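Re: beginner question about structure tokens

> Can someone show what the tokenized structure looks like for a real chain? I only ever see the sequence side.

Sure, here's an example I had lying around. Input first:
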Amino acid sequence: MKTLKEMLAEARQVVPEEGPADLQRRLQSGDKVVVIDVRDPDEYRDGHLEAATNISRGFLEFRVGTAVTDPSTPVVLYCQTGLRSLLAAKALKELGYQNVINLQGGFQKWTQSGLPVVKDVPMNADQIQRYSRHFLLPQVGDKGQRKLLRAKVLLIGAGGLGSPTALYLAAAGVGTLGLMDGDVVDITNLQRQVLHTTADIGKPKVESGTRTLKALNPDVHVIPLPMRITVDNVMDVIKDYDLIVDGSDNFETRYLVNDACFLAGKTNVHGSIFQFEGMATVFAPNEGPCYRCLYPTPPPPGLVPS
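And the corresponding structure tokens:
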């Protein structure tokens, strides 16, 4: 009978290993790679790589086909220290998976390297019912819903664009919404700015917006920011958010938000509308142009209607 040491030595002869920094580069570059956490579910819940799917070692051969449909797809396995996953990787190679890699040092080395991990909070019965339709969608599912609950989105503007955006993000279960607007509700807003009601006239938009969003979904943590975005506060405001949604109505703010997102490496979702025409664009850092790339200089004042 082979010893564990002999089995590990055999596995290392056929399974390549990569360190945490190598895997992080793969993930950041957008390479097509499937990451599988082969630890037990309780270990996974205590903390895991965001990109990972949990298939515990005892079920790997039976369930890997649901996560890896093409045997040529690169697959990275990890466990706590890299030993269980090394043996699991060898088993997948023997099943015909051609590009199986073991994360050297496992989850332990990943965390020691200071790389990001996530910890899932169990959903309660109300949340399971509320988001049940998302669970049926393969593009969202349980994993996607948990990611939404962890997400932090900043909405700049609680008006005609910010109102429906905020409502749908809150309904979908985005965990933290920053709502930034320095204006008060005016009666002329009410035919389109659906966060606010007649009773809110004269009140700050972030106040009525926060109340509406919390009434829609108590899960959501709403951060009211009753101010305008300026060159002095923009970097500090955006730093804690994963995504910035710019629903502003003036070019000065649009260029400011674009430049700040570019410098901070934040994805900027930009929208604008005039009468019955609208435009929505996603400016992702290092994945394409930014707003200033498309429109190098603002138009002269008064040339473009708001």
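Each token stands for a local structural state, so reading them left to right follows the chain. The first strand starts at residue 17 and ends at 18.
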